Amino acid sequence: MIGKLSAVEISTWYWLALGVVLVLGEIFMPGGILVWIGVGAAVVGIVSVFVKLTLIVKLVIWMVVAGILLVLWFKLLRDNDSSREGRAEATLGYTGTLVRVVAPGMNSSVRFNRPILGEEVWDCESSVRIDANTKVKVVAAVGREGRRLRVMPA
């Protein structure tokens, strides 16, 4: 086995090292992107141990593997911040300012003085008519999977 490893091209070790550096870089820049790009590089390094590949083929494998992993990450695995799915409960009890008029069956937005879970403006609804620029209090998380807030005048 050691004889086989010593015969491996130096570029294979570069790919493996790049994979490790990118995965470890995720510690300093969290977000779930570097880890998948690093895994793609590591896959190229592992494949290169067994099959001699040109640089172009290695780059294509890296892009394809990293691309597939990133798509899977953003579509299936990641807690999608833009949907705020299941996180609206964190806003309960907060007060904000209504961006535009809201009434039953009509959606609006509420702006908080400071971001809550990274967002300053959240979608909302109300069971009563409330004029724009009115101070409102969040009383519930509603809508499909709790993505919208129910507000009442503060």
From TrEMBL:
Transmembrane segments: 12-28, 59-77
Keywords tagged on the record: Membrane, Transmembrane, Transmembrane helix
InterPro entries, sorted: Membrane_assoc_protease, NA-bd_OB-fold
Species the sequence originates in: Viridibacterium curvum
Keyword Membrane listed: yes
Keyword Transcription regulation listed: no
Taxonomic lineage: Bacteria, Pseudomonadati, Pseudomonadota, Betaproteobacteria, Rhodocyclales
Superkingdom per UniProt: Bacteria
Name listed for the protein in its UniProt record: NfeD-like C-terminal domain-containing protein
